[in-house]
Amino acid sequence: MKGKSKVYFAQARTGEIKIGVSVQVHKRVQDISQNHPYELTLVGYMDGNSRLERQCHVALDKHRLRGEWFKNNNEVRETIEGWLSDKGMGPHWVSSFENSEKIMCQYG
Q: Which of 9, 27, 49, 92 has the most neighbouring CB atoms within 10 Å?
């Protein structure tokens, strides 16, 4: 079953932010989380394709760590918050994983 693609933002427990694109956002984040040393939490998503994903990457390029991974700082969070407030679901930032159980954001 093919659906509409979404640009998503996921946050690692260590704070780094991944920007990706998928039709099945929740499944994609779960799959990445299984292959990542730290759990990922879905911060938010918005309708978009790989072109929009690339535009997001370019807009945040000076904060890029590697590939689709970006630093977690005020400028990055504020930029993502602006995109999501206009077009998407979120943001739901993970403030701390200290002494907490697994955090998963659920969207209706």
A: 9
